[in-house]
Amino acid sequence: MHVTGTAARQAPAPSGTHPVPAEDPNGDTGRHARRFGLPVATALVMGNIIGGGIFLLPASVAPYGTVSLVAFGVLTVGAITLALVFGRLAERDPRTGGPYVYAREAFGDFAGFLAAWAYWITTWVSNAALAVAAVGYLDVLIPVAGHRWSACLAALALQWLPALANFAGTRYVGAVQLVSTVLKFVPLLLVAVGGLFFFDPAKLGPFNATGGGAIGAVSACAALLLFSYLGVESAAVSAGEVKDARRNVGRATVIGTAGAALVYLLGILSVFGTVGHGRLVTSTAPFSDAVNAMFGGSWGGWAVALAALVSMTGCLNGWTLLSAQTPYAAARDGLFPAAFARRRRGVPTVGVGVTVVLASLLTVYNYTAGSAKVFDMLVLVTTFTATVPYLLATAAQVFHLVSGRRESVDRARLLRDAVVTAVAAAFSMWLVAGAGYAAVYQGVLFLFAGIIVYAVMAARRQRPA
């Protein structure tokens, strides 16, 4: 195990596990730096998984028919196995950094750096995309999308407000995440649960609307749904800020992922059963259409737009924290610039600042370019870069199981871990394949750019004092 810098101070480890470096001893404790309990950690997972995509998801998969529910069920199984793997890895090593920590501990500095670099790219590009998408919902309430600079300023405000909450400390990050998660679930549950009382099987449409084979339809539909579970690693990435992380990270990850899956599946099923298939295929606001179909009137568009804004703001709040946590962990080990290891009130403030600035620059470029083509390409790249840390973390669990470096000799538990890990590994490979050739090609270029950064950091570590 590689331990350098501030990570050198060891904390006691339970029997059967390796010693774990104590989290940041640089005096960022206090009333603004507070560890997350199980409820907030679970809210972090659910809030980051369920962003704004849920509000468009039913219309996106409607052209495939109800076979999309089968595809989502398969993906849910894969996501939960990945959640279980993260829980087991966090039980071994409950430090901030998640996949970065697991990859580095198992395979060394270079694998850890690749996990950190890929995850960092994913977070700040996704933040820019999420803020731009949120402007579309804001336009329903306040017309801004028709004016380029008004829309740009609105997108920047939607990024900087969560960043300010992060600068205020983990106490406020947790509060915003918990409140936003609760608020956004009110309208989602209204449709997901209330829609079951207005469910009309005649509106479901065909099982397979593609006209081809069912297996091909499931695979094609899965390409749209594969990344609905990005964020499953949220509690693991912030493990250093979670109380009793060895126990609570795994629980929060599984509960949060299962809760998000339940909302997804019920929401899609309810919309399918309340909005006619022909209307749903062309809908730009399926949840609004579902609310209008259930209760009449036209207030659904306003309600769903407001819910989407709350959802995306909470999602940006959580992702802003995650975007700084992985570089923070890597910087403590000398694999990222040392400035990323600075923390204040429990938050890596330099990481938050750099991330929000990069996302803001990308947002401004998107609006000034007058075309979303380049921006869309970068967003597509994140679909590949997000899978790199997932696959490395799963490989780390495979390494521990095969090498015998496990916490228990219980054969039943060992068999269960092996099966879960095998499914998670297959799921991770499916994520890579689902990203598409163009995304993999562009994503590899981003990873190769990171290799240059790694070379510089490695050389600085070897340089004589």
Give me a quick take on this structure.
By secondary structure, the protein is mainly alpha-helical. The chain has helices at 38-49, 57-61, 67-92, 99-107, 109-141, 148-168, 170-194, 214-225, 234-237, 245-274, 277-281, 286-295, 300-332, 349-369, 373-385, 387-403, 411-434, 437-462; strands at residues 10-11, 20-21.
| Low-pLDDT ranges | 1-33
Distance between the termini: 23 Å
Task: Give average pLDDT, whole number.
Answer: 77
Query: Considering DSSP H and I runs of 4 or more, what fraction of the residues is helical?
Result: over 70%
Q: What Rg is obtained from the alpha carbons, in whole angstroms?
A: 22 Å
Strand content: under 5%
Strand neighbour order, sheet with most strands: 1-2
Main structural class: mainly alpha
The geometry reads as: globular
How do the SSEs run, as a string of H and E?
A: EEHHHHHHHHHHHHHHHHHH
Number of strands: 2
Number of helices, where a helix is a run of at least 4 consecutive DSSP H or I residues: 18
3D structure, described in words:
By secondary structure, this protein is an all-alpha fold. 70% of the residues lie in helices and 1% in strands. The chain has helices at residues 38-49, 57-61, 67-92, 99-107, 109-141, 148-168, 170-194, 214-225, 234-237, 245-274, 277-281, 286-295, 300-332, 349-369, 373-385, 387-403, 411-434, 437-462, and strands at 10-11, 20-21. Strands 1-2 form a two-stranded antiparallel ribbon. The longest helix has 33 residues, at 109-141. The protein is globular and about 70 Å long. The relative contact order is 0.19.
